Amino acid sequence: MLNKILVVDDEPDVESLFRQFFRAQIKKGELTFVFAENGSVALDKLKSDSEIDVVFTDINMPVMDGLTFLEKKKENNLLHKTVVISAYGDMQNIRTAMNRGAFDFITKPITFEDLQLTLIKSIEEMELLKKGIEAQKNLIQTQHEKEIALIEKAEAQQQALQSLQEKEKLILYQNELLESQVTERTKEVLYQKELLEIKNKEILDSIHYAKSLQEAILPPENQLQNVLPQSFIYFLPKDIISGDFYWFESTDDKIIIVAADCTGHGVAGALMSVLGTSLLNQIVNEKKIHTPSLILKQLNSSVISSLNKSDTDSHAGMDIAICSIDLKNNVIEFAGAKRPIWIIRNGELLITSGDKFSIGSQYWDNEKFANHFIPISEHDAVYLFSDGYVDQFGGETGKKLMTNNFKELLISIQNKNMNEQRLLISGYFEKWKDGKEQVDDVMVIGIKI
């Protein structure tokens, strides 16, 4: 039997992820998928396509988010089993989703096993619902035909009265049964809530401890200011702990500075950041590799080796920018893995892009990380950053901040010292966010030569 699944998510790689996860079932003709980039499009698809059985939806999407989509689906009496998939797996989102008709809730990052089990359960429940609806239709039709036959008989009124009495008894019985089920379900929900609160506290305690460890691993900002007085680090994790990290070291009359954005955020990202910090210490301080492109080459090999990755294994990795500042010879060496370096000189923005491969990629030619030599002048401003700042939703239209707005902001504040720049960058970000949830870790490193 072919089951049609609707996936609602604005992330561009979601479609390929689902088709990869369920490629065997798709090939056998057991599953087929349709996709929608937001709740509004998904609602139209549900109304027009009666063959859809199950819906997977994200929460945070433009135009119409997942929670609003659940509410609208309920208002339109669309009975499809809906599973929420989101990184925002806090109790408030889970309760809101369930109250609006969600069948289940999966937190990101998702695994194939969790997704497979939830899909099977959702399809089974949807089949039961369809059978129940069909049985109810058949029952109504049968009852209607019997009532017509009874009316045509002489004793129709008496039999109709008896039928009505039986129905009232059935309704009373069903009400009593429903009240009993609601009472038991309420007890179960309260018990589960208590367990969740206990587990949540244990998890939060562990994460807060992990935060203190991560802060101890990251180098203090004042150490960078000791060698580069006009510098700042704006570091704002999305969650308690961060997948973004920074690193720097003074060696051979040069200052090596790193800005890295690991896959994911929260606990998963933080574990990658600890691995990245440890490997950088080995590469730069123990193996004495100081050229940015060679650091990236060694880091890529070490990450793949550390994670025991094969061609089909996890997507864990990091995007990273490394620059080596030689103040004696007024030059910067730079290499990047999907992250650039920006230099503002006399009001003009100069961009040097990194290579189009992440650290940890299996599809990368080890010889292709480019090492760029960039002459620098007094008063040049150098910036390294992750993508969290420009990807934040907000503003009057609720859209992403985007790179052009960030460029204009940096150019407009060049007459300020670096401490003032940090405050202005922070203030602009908070104003743009305007109370909305932060979508990713944020890090900006600024240096005035």
Strand order of the largest sheet: 2-1-3-4-5
Count of individual helical segments: 12
Rg, please? 29 Å
CATH topology of the largest domain: Phosphatase 2c, domain 1
CATH superfamily membership of the largest domain: PPM-type phosphatase domain
CATH class of the largest domain: Alpha Beta
Give the proportion of residues in helices.
Answer: 40-55%
Strand content: 15-25%
Number of strands: 17
**Helix and strand element order:** EHHEHEHEHEHHHEEEHHEEEEEEEEHHE
Tell me the structural class. alpha+beta
Question: What is the CATH-assigned architecture of the largest domain?
Answer: 4-Layer Sandwich
Any idea how many domains? Answer: 3
Most strands sheet: 5 strands, parallel
Note the overall shape: elongated
Provide the residue-averaged pLDDT: 86
N-to-C span: 67 Å
**Low-confidence runs (pLDDT<50, min 5 residues)?**
none
